[in-house]
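Weekly modeling sync, notes
Attendees: S.R. (lead), two postdocs, one rotation student

Agenda item 3: backlog of single-chain predictions. S.R. asked that every request posted to the team notebook include the full sequence so nobody has to chase files. The rotation student volunteered to paste the first one in as an example of the format we agreed on. Action items at the bottom.

Example entry:
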Amino acid sequence: MELTVALISFISGALLTRLVLWYAHKAEIFDVPNQRSSHDQPTPRGGGLSIVITVLAMVGWLWYENMISQELARTLLVGGGLLAVVGWQDDIHKSRANWRLLIHFFVAAWALFWLGGVEQFVFGGVVISLGWVGSIFAAVGIAWMINLYNFMDGIDGLAASEGGFVAGVGGIMLILVGAPGLASISFSLSAACLGFLVWNWSPAKIFMGDVSSGFIGFVFAVLMIEGERRGVLSLWVWVTLLALFIGDSTYTLIRRVILKEQWYAAHRSHAYQQQAAVKGHKRVVTMMQLMNFLWLLPFVLLEYLFPVWVPEILVVTAVVAWFIWRRSSSV
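Predicted structure, as returned to the notebook:
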């Protein structure tokens, strides 16, 4: 079943991206380079619409087949669909940041309403109860996941390859813990990202765009919460898998706040952007994927085999991520 889901999603992602590429040229939907850009020529954008359509269609089918709950389906179909609509609008006509942020928190509240909120989580084998405060933290976390994935979509192939890796490994972990419905969603996202990557690998023929960058972050956040709520897969597994994205976006934001810069304004001061300016897009993406497989994947396996080690693994991961970010930001 999961292999079929992945195969269909990959084909759908690749073919629909080609269709969006044709439409973007016809409708003249281009990302025109400016001083903040990491590319030097107008490039079609909005190609991630293929990922959104593929994943949401698969969610609808899984719901129809009773493989996922009605609550989870409503969370993703409505919340993810709304994010995609707002993102597509932003790809065509740039919208105000405060308006987008309002939508992000609305979507976070929508997800928590249908998923039942977050009142506790397991950390190193210890159950930590937070009550209603947990849902507030979760709402901020969902909004941050939406935005950080958008921030990290700045060079050819990065966001798509990360989505392919994280969702692919997450799907395998969900199979191991006996959650085939969640695994199918994760595999669909992974394969759709890889199908899109066929057209987005450097030099990119089309960019992902806001239509799906925030959508991918939202799906990851929902998988985190649902896996933790059902006790099948710790949210810390996802946090570890996404460490490079979380580290670069979070440390860069903190630095911008400390330096009293307009942290909400577009920029190109992320570590991956600075590295890409020197080493090129393809080399940076390849290096990050090597770190995913050689560093973060083994850490995730340790978390799975030894849950009580989670606090120590997270501390080491955060320190290593900071060191990588610090060295990469000083080029």
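Discussion: group reviewed the output briefly. The two ends are 46 Å apart (CA to CA).
Action items: rotation student to repeat for the remaining queue; S.R. to check formatting next week.
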